[in-house]
Amino acid sequence: MSADWRAPPPLPPSAPERVRGALGGSLLFEQPALAADRARFEAFVAGPEPLGVEVGFDHGMRILERARRQPDWRWLGLEIRRARVDAAAPHAPTNTLLWRADARAVFAALMPPGRVSLVEVYFPTPTDNPRHLLWTQSFVDAVARSLAPDGRLVVVTDVEGLHQHIGALLAGWTEAEEPPPAGVLSRRERVCRRDELPVYRRCVSPPPQG
Length: 210
Ligand SMILES: C[S@@+](CC[C@H](N)C(=O)[O-])C[C@H]1O[C@@H](n2cnc3c(N)ncnc32)[C@H](O)[C@@H]1O
Known about the structure:
alpha/beta, Rossmann fold, seven-stranded mixed β-sheet, binds S-adenosylmethionine, 210 residues
């Protein structure tokens, strides 16, 4: 499926206050049952340290290693699969919050502007379903708003079509130097290395906000 992946047709725009996403999208955060989760997130990102975010952390190897190696940063992991979050969360040090949440809704509805120093997305899913697609213009715009002016977005994929799709969404962003390696490979990264698959990487800083 992924060898000749092409972006599915975009969905019609939703109302600005309603960000689509898995797990109920942004409306989810307005439910009383999630007030504690939201408060925990808000307290976590209010801290003074630089904030790094990994989207789709899966088993969490990368973000947990980053958190151990950079204890002077805060690390937020966003992952929609509950079993992955439940398995990794007990290993998270105190500078790390692993949250079962849709990154599209978190960036659009909750993340304070200019707060984030680093966003990492390793091997995003090359979905054919437009409802599940992470890489849309609205996600890229929300990430741009969330990043500090010298903040960086790193995206890595082995799917050439997805790399091209993301490249088009990142028009106007500035090429930047990649941060130091996490010190451990993600699961997909290990497969790509083992099978000698081509891997496409981008590291960019956001365009100046108008
Ligand atoms: C192909 S896997 C890659 C996992 C890992 N980063 C790696 O490199 O092996 C994509 C991951 O992103 C997660 N994911 C997909 N859409 C997401 C979203 N909107 N928000 C948060 N996580 C998401 C999936 O559950 C899955 O764990």
